Structure formats: C-alpha cells, structure tokens
Amino acid sequence: MEKQKIMINGERLKNTVEAFADFGRTKNNGVTRLALSDEDIKVRKHFRSLCEELGMMVTWDDMGNMYATLEGIANDQPPVVIGSHLDSVEKGGRFDGVLGVLTGLEVVRTMVENGIKPQVPVVVANITNEEGARFEPSLMASGVISGRFNKSNMLKSTDKNGITFGEALRKSGYEGKEENRLKEASAFLELHIEQGPVLETESLQIGVVDCVVGMVCYELEVTGDSDHAGTTPMPLRKDALFAANNLISEIRQNMDKLDERLVYTIGRMNVSPNIHTVIPNKVVFSLEARHQDAETIKQVEEIIQTLHESSGKEKCKVKATKLWDRDTVWFDEKLVYSLERSAKTLGYPYKPMVSGAGHDAQFIATYIPSAMIFVPSVNGKSHAEDELTSWEDCEKGVNVILQTVLDLTTN
Ligand SMILES: [Zn+2]
C-alpha cells in the first residue's frame, strides 16, 4: 500500500510569509530589509524564536549566517540544509529570499507535527547579505564561507553612511564563531522565486535548476574627436557616439547568430564630454553575456576581440577590456534528479531550467552537494514592490522541497 503523502500547510505558509513581510513592509506592500538593518535584526530574532519553539537549536557563524537545527536520529551525520536569505533590496518584494528560508521552516513544522524524526539533522539556514544592497558585493557571506571571498576585505565593505559590514555585524549581536560555519552537509536545497517570466509564460509551476549560468563582462571604449557641434561638417567628424551606435548594431547581429539561449546586455554607457554643443570624443559601455556552455561564451569573446575599429564613416578606435568572468556552476545531479522526481510524484508541471541570476547556492555548491528550484514570478518581476508568486505556487514549491527532504532523511 502506498504511504499517505505528507503535505505542508499552505495557509500557515502564507501567514508566515506575510508576518515576515511586516519587518520592513513598505507603503506599496513591498519590503525594505537591508542586511543588518534594524528590520533585519528584528526579523532574525523572530525567525530564531519560531525555530526555538519547534525545539530547534539556533546558532550563527562569524558572518552572521544563522543555522537552526532539528535533531535527527544520527546527529553525527552530515545534515540536510534548506536555506536562502532574509535580507532584501531597497523597496524589494515579499518573496525573494525569505520564501526559501520559510520553506525550511515550513518543512520542519510539517515534520514535527507529523512526528517524523529524520535520520540526519535538518538545518534551516539564513545566509547574511545575499543582496549586497547595503554592503557590496552580493552573495557576500556565502562567498566567505565557501572560500571565494576574503573575509577581512568583506568586513571593510562600507554602506552609504560609512558604516562597515564588520561594525554592523558586531552591533547586530549576530557575530558568531567561525567554527559554527556550515562545513559539511549531504545536501543544500534552495527554493527561490524565478525572477523571470519563463515559468509563468509556459504555465509551469516548478523550475528545477540545473545550473547557474556563467558570464563574462567586458568594457568597450570608443575613441573619436571632440569638435564644435555647429562648425564641424559631418564628413569631417569622428563622432564616438555614432561610431558606438554602429558597433552596437554589429555586436547584436553577430551575437544573435550564436545560441538562442545566449543573453547579453549593454547596461551602462558613458558619453564624454556629454555636452549638447560638443561632438562626443569618447563612449565607454559595458557588455555582459551569459550562457551555460563555455564554448558559447568563448564565441562571444571572439566576437568582442575582433572589434578594433568601428565600421561606418567614423572609423573610431575601439578598445575592449575584459573586466571579469564567472564559470557556470552545475548543481548536484542526484539532487536535481531527486527534485524532479518529487515534482513528478506530486503531479506538478515542471521543467529543467538554468538560473541567469546569482544565488547563494552557487557558492555553496562548490563544497556541498546543492540544488535549487524556482517558483513562478508573476510578470517575471522581482526586486520590486509588486513582486508576486501566487500562494498556490509557493505551496507547491515547498511541497517539492518537503518531498525531497523526506526522501533524503527518512526510510
Ligand atoms: Zn534572492
């Protein structure tokens, strides 16, 4: 006989998400809860007390990451961890990050109320300063505990009022011991809102994430000549902005010939001297591209590296400088499979997908088997007050995580 499936309590999940949104709720029903702000400190306390009510032990490490542990049968075994972040951007939404932490809480609540004692401990984690909205960079604390970022540099990161991350951490009361860091686990599972339109467009409820895509970022500098905008005839000009315009069209044409899953963006552009009576002599712009396959990223770089001179009349010099790159992070195959199987067992329409955005799980994946699922974002919105995921979709997502945690921790 098939076991009766244990499901989470959707109503309780909804109420908890709304209660957490009260910490920093904005006029337009969004949330501002910057890392280690008063709101963040208060929400941490609230999170802690809810976990302790369930009999969990709550600790935090030297980056302020919080870990609430539900004991298992064999407590010397590596735990299963469910986590995300409670911080938000300025005027962000009620779901980004917090939904992943509350997924963990709801999973534990469901296990406790059903009298399930897991084989190994189950940990719910709140990772500090994922957003990097107050203290740069983003993914700060997961970067430190995975050895990607240098801790002392991070402690010096300053907010706009000149307060360092280190000072804010100390003052918050959440500066714990390094030995409390997440060191070992059999799984790190993160549920996150998609922050894009794909699931909604395809009427799917779950995205099982295979990887966080790699990216490359260049800066292009186009150099022309500044002259008077009224006295210089058109054929005698070296207008760097018209040149940049041609260059951008060329980039677009060439990039569009590559894989259709490639995304690329010119997000920043500076025009000098930026005066309406002067022909621009310099244009500097960023060009970033993202794709899961290293080969495609290589093709992007080849295109960029052939750009030495702009086409068209202007013939301005072009200089391309690589700013940085990041390799694709593939999630643990077994965990990805186990999340897919959970979605299938529960009868929820899902698809494998990639993450174009960065998440803590991508750093943690470098030393702990990790995987993620996405739930749909209405209109693809995030980092905005009208960010929304339907309560039904939240509930389904958490059920997928619960099912997977039960598979991993019970017989
Ligand atoms: Zn997030």
Write the layout of secondary structure elements.
Blueprint: H1 10-21, H2 38-53, E1 57-60, E2 66-70, E3 80-84, H3 98-113, E4 122-126, H4 140-145, H5 151-155, H6 165-172, E5 187-193, H7 198-201, E6 206-212, E7 214-223, H8 240-256, E8 263-265, E9 269-272, E10 282-291, H9 294-305, E11 317-326, E12 329-330, H10 333-346, E13 350-355, H11 360-364, E14 370-375, H12 391-409
Parallel strand pairs: 3-4, 3-5, 5-14, 6-13
Antiparallel strand pairs: 1-2, 2-4, 6-12, 6-14, 7-10, 7-11, 8-10, 9-10
Helix pairs in contact: 1-3, 3-12, 10-12
This protein binds zinc ion.
Zinc ion binds next to loops.
User: What is the subunit organization of this protein?
Assistant: single chain
What characterizes the major β-sheet? 9 strands, mixed
If you average the pLDDT, what whole number results?
96
Q: Tell me the β content.
A: 15-25%
* SS elements, strand count: 14
Q: Tell me the radius of gyration.
A: 24 Å
- Between the first and last Cα atoms, what is the distance in angstroms? 15 Å
Which ligands occur here?
A: zinc ion
Describe the structure.
This protein is of the alpha/beta class and 411 residues long. The chain has helices at 10-21, 38-53, 98-113, 140-145, 151-155, 165-172, 198-201, 240-256, 294-305, 333-346, 360-364, 391-409, and strands at 57-60, 66-70, 80-84, 122-126, 187-193, 206-212, 214-223, 263-265, 269-272, 282-291, 317-326, 329-330, 350-355, 370-375. The strands form two sheets. Strands 1, 2, 3, 4, 5, 6, 12, 13 and 14 form a nine-stranded mixed β-sheet that branches. A hairpin with a 5-residue loop joins β1 (57-60) and β2 (66-70). α3 (98-113) packs across α12. The protein is elongated. The mean pLDDT is 96. Residues 85, 96-97, 130, 192 line the site of zinc ion. Zinc ion is lined by residues 85, 96-97, 130, 192.
